[in-house]
Task: structure prediction
Amino acid sequence: MTSFRKRTVQKPIRGTRTSPHTGQVITSSGNPSLDLILGGGLPIGSICLIEEDRFMTHAKVLVKYFLAEGLLSKQELFLGSLDDSPAEMLRRLPKPLTDEEIEQEQRQEQEQQADKNGLRIAFRYNDLPLVNSEQATAKIGHHFNLMEHMDAMMLSYGNAITWNDKKTNELTNPGWLLDPIESMPYSYAQAVGSKADSEQSPPDAAAPEAAAVASPEAAVVAFPEAAAVASPEAAAAAGETEATPMEQSDGQKTASNINNNNNNNMDNSTANNTTSTTGTTTTTTPTASPSTGKPQFFYNARYDRLLNYIQLQLNDPIFEPGANMQEKNLCRVCLTSLGSPLWYDDHFAEDLLKFLTILRGSVRSYTAVCFITMPMHLIAKYDSSLVPKIRQLVDYAIELESFAGSERETHPAFKEYSGLLHLHKMTAINTLAVHMPETTDLAFKLRRKKFVIEKLHLPPDLQESTEQTAKGADVLPMPNCGVNSNVSMDF
Amino acid sequence: MATSLLLACGLNEQKLPGFVHISEESNVDGSFLISCILGQRLRISNAGTLLVCLQNHYQHYFNAGMRLGYNSNIFLGKTLNVIDVLSDMARLGLTSKWLRSPDGLTLTEQLVKDIREQLEKNYPNRSSYTILIDNLSILINLGASKQQVQQFCLDLADLAKAHDNLTVITKLSNSDIHPLTDNNVAKLGNVRIQVLRLKSGVFRDVDGKLLIERVLDDEGSYSCEQTRKEVLYKVNDRNVKIYNPGEIGVKV
Result:
């Protein structure tokens, strides 16, 4: 008997690589400078929390990067939000840069720096390389231009499911929450039916149906909770319609995903029920089962619904971690403004913690990464003890402190930056030690085309002036009883 | 790899105290302690271990263990048993028994029931048995009240008293937010390890501080006598280093 064993090398998932630091599989967050801080990217199975700035400007930019990266890497997306329109958010994703554009941009930046730094203090410093406080680019991921939106055709190639809980607000039946298929909400179950029909019917017949679903109105009405992006072939089959490719894909992808997700779980009665629908979402009968009287886990039913959708999406075999299959893929779960006032009720804190705990388990157990933004300044006002509890349930907690509207906006020390970035938590997932960045004194700036995270440094002229004032203060007599302060007395 | 850490905590012996509680402050990660203790228990032949995964799933402990130089998969199903609550919740969603309480049992009661079952099955064949619970704050997050968590720990402490060579090790995160629960649980045992952050800020060479409190229950001493030891720790890629206070500092 030979000891020879055939070596089975697992095919890496699209848009991922193994980190040389930790040996874990990581994926890009979409922003190269954020990737560098995280140690190359987000580890698979991790949850990254972005604590929103007061005006929610910069957190949204990072969300766009995260989604755009997933779309470009042909990964599956799940976008949930109560505050924003997820479909609109997907439409406004930044445009990826080509290699030539990246090179050109880097060259321009180098030239600009050379112009700025042409004059040195002494000629011997000319041999030293230019100090670039901007973090180096990551090896995975793409570069994006925030000034332009992603091409509609490019969007049509992506797979995305969105959730905004519009239709289900009217549902008072908690029973469906515990049984993912039987008690699927109206529009969701219809989507299953329409997809099943379109699969059974010939392509010619499926095309007009797809086109019908593709109209923006239909997408909003029929898929208020779970709109999705379809395959380009289906979009092409639908023919030229008024709808954008993004909208065309909405219904179809929902259907395909649900079909994939639920094939294992679907019982016969439900399957029959859903496939008996006529295919167009507007004419089918509701398939949601009546209340089964099962207890509801969350006080706020929205969490049940959202969690159900996420778990339906993640239960797809392509996200099974151990599966050795061709179509293995990564799911990017993105939840924006979770815990905003729209989520408030009497049991807000309990529900949010429960939700995050179960979400953590789900994301860890599948090939997925999660990106959450939260208005932590509002949550802190609601209950200050909630902040550390939430941070404990995520793997990365990053706070964006914007200067907008604060005194620091006009402060000369921070004139180069848009805000400060605080790293509150970094957890070691599937390893012992966590990667720590070179420095934790970080600031960000929102340039025209990109969002950059840099090491915080004071401008040279300010350093001199502070030194001068300090010297001046030493010389000047202090009238305020020995307190070293330049502030005028109140009287 | 982690011998010095366990030595400092007094957990490197074959026979451990009945109940050990690990308190973890907010913004501090003390999961390395569980990995170190798990490795030490698995290395002892015929010592059984039950790992209750609430904060991380089993794969995390396996990977962390590999970094520390042991392969927990070899022991899985033999001397190591796992109750992976997190994975169950992920697989079964809201229909999971941990979230639905099908028998009318609360989450903590269900957990005690499962632990008892595991204990009855495995304890008679093992020279010693260790139950590791990581971590109690997840139970609170999942809706268990403070009383329920306390009762859960009390039940476990009773188990430890009823069985020889049985050790229960619990961990509680955000101990500064749940001081009452933390203190009450710590009172059930003789050893308490507090994982604290550095008050002065972040330091590259040191991750945090361990405060080890041990009640002396030796013959002839009073139960109010206790020792306190403070050590600094640094979690590296493949080991955990321990420093005495003042041993390491900023070099000018």
User: Anything to note?
Assistant: Residues 3-243 of chain B form a domain with the Rossmann fold fold (CATH 3.40.50.300). Chain B has a mean pLDDT of 90. The interface with chain A takes residues 26-27, 29, 31-32, 35, 56-57, 59-60, 63-64, 67-68, 85-87, 89-91, 93-95, 99-100, 137-138, 141-143, 173-174, 176-177, 202, 204, 235-238, 240 of chain B (CB under 8 Å).
